[in-house]
Amino acid sequence: MNKIAIALHGGAGTILKKRITPAKEAAYKKVLKHALDVGYAALEQNKTAVEAVELSIIEMENSPLFNAGKGSVFTNKGTHEMDASIMEGKTLNAGAATLLHNIKNPVSLARLIMEKSEHVMLAGEGAMEFAKKMKCKFEPDRYFYDEFRYQQWIKIKDSEKVQLDHSVNKKIGTTGAVALDVYGNLAAGTSTGGVTNKKTGRIGDSPIIGSGTYANNKSCAISCTGNGEFFIRSVAAYDISCLMEYKGMSLNDACHEVINNKLLKLGGEGGLVGIDANGNIAVSFNSEGMYRAYKQSGKSAVTAIYKE
Question: Which residue out of 174, 190, 196, 303 is catalytically annotated?
Answer without folding.
Answer: 174
